[in-house]
Amino acid sequence: MRARRIGAVLGAAAIAVALPAVPASAQQQPPPGGRPSPVDTRAVPPPLDPNWQVPKVGGPDAAYAPKTACIAPASGQRFDLKNKPWGQLEMQFDELHQFSRGEGVTVAVIDTGVRKHDYLTVRGGGDFVIAAHNGLEDCDGHGTEVAGIIAAHPPADGQIGFVGIAPGAEILSIRQSSANYEGKRPTAADPDPRAEPAGTLETLAQAVVSAANQGARVINMSVDSCRPADLPIQPSEKNLQAALRYAHETMDVVLVASAGNYGQDCESGVNAGDPTRPDHLVLPPWFSEYVISVAAIQANGDPADFSVPGPWVTVAAPGTNIISLDPTTNDGLVNLQVVNGKSQEIQGTSFAAPYVAGLAALIRSYRKELSAKQVSERIKLTAIHPAAPGGRDNRIGYGMINPLAALTAAIPAEKGIQPDQPLDMKAELPGPIVKNWAPMQVALIGSAGGLLLLLLTLFVVHTVRRNRGGGKDELRGMA
């Protein structure tokens, strides 16, 4: 079987090449009185054999050559953008960096490569396209922009507003995919296949293992593969699952992936039905036991229209009107990209994920004692939950990330304190209040009787006095 391609798709509403960790119990609820139907298990990947081998790291899986020219600098005058992106203001970077800047943490960016830039600390970590480039060529521009959101550190002279969420972190670049390179990957079933762009699930799995072995504490994967849910899990998918398990559980790495955009593989409207029964799966987010999957939010707070929903979505972050490092220069910024000859704003879940990866780097630098699972849980628990059952939905997971809270909040579970258990509090309304009117009635009757008796007495007295007065007049008249 031909290896399924996975790559960075550059587009106006879909910029991802291509998870919280939502517990399986929260993803899948069996129907009342019965076992879960086979389709219900789509929300949860099948368990991996404990003895399934971790993929061995190799090199490019084909002899790749340029298919199209690499991106070039935009025509016209170069400039530096001085305004801060809305996502940076929303995330309160100025306050956040008083606690942590991500120093001492290496974040691996598995993407289209990262170009060396004056505003970025980056080292090569490997290349599955052209081995000699060691991850430091970015022919597509995607990886450099992702890395900039994580760790860009422009001069602090007030001339540039943009800065990465973890400017003190180091980027480890591994080029795993490229839409501008193509090559043939022969198999026993297809010895003469057509040329395809670089990037498969197999190389993604190897890149994850390589990043973990090179000391990455956080891995960002703005790469996704979308396929129908009614297909059985493939060996390449199991290899990716094994790689993620190895990185997260054995090497203690925080894994972050973009939730995916509507595009060629995931057509608009997929997964819009039963929240527990997706019709398409997105990988790596599907492996939500290990991966934080990130949806995109737009500036007005609504979920982005291009963000693919699913029961594996963990949290959301800004994914529109992006500003980042210019992948064609050594000292520039960019806020537009050229797609099909037209300039468009940079957006996509690809650029929401690095906000979360950078946040994980801040936490790992500030709270070194926390494990990868605790960091992931902290990000999930402190998110701004949507008004939905259980505080999550399939569009934005547990909600927009709250970096300050994720960095500084006290989490009881980290201190060994068991969470409060839910109580069965029945909402019983009090019965109707029956007022006893008898005292009021007695008082009214008594008052009325007293008033009547008083009036009667006055009448009698007045009558007697009149009668007595009239008798004296008569006597005087007779005399």
Percent in strands: 5-15%
Strand order of the largest sheet: 3-4-2-7-9-11-12
Average pLDDT across residues? 87
Total helical elements:
10
CATH-defined fold name: Rossmann fold
Sketch the major β-sheet: 7 strands, parallel
Shape field: elongated
Protein described:
Pfam families: Peptidase_S8 (PF00082). GO terms for molecular function: serine-type endopeptidase activity. This is Phage tail length tape-measure protein. This protein is an alpha/beta fold. The protein has a single domain (55-415), classed as 3-Layer(aba) Sandwich (Rossmann fold), CATH 3.40.50.200. It has helices at 24-27, 86-90, 93-96, 142-151, 201-213, 235-250, 353-366, 372-381, 403-408, 438-478, and strands at 65-66, 106-111, 122-127, 170-175, 178-183, 196-198, 218-221, 225-228, 254-258, 280-283, 291-297, 315-318, 324-325, 333-334, 336-339, 342-345. Helix 4 links the parallel strand 3 (122-127) and strand 4. The chain is elongated. The relative contact order is 0.16.
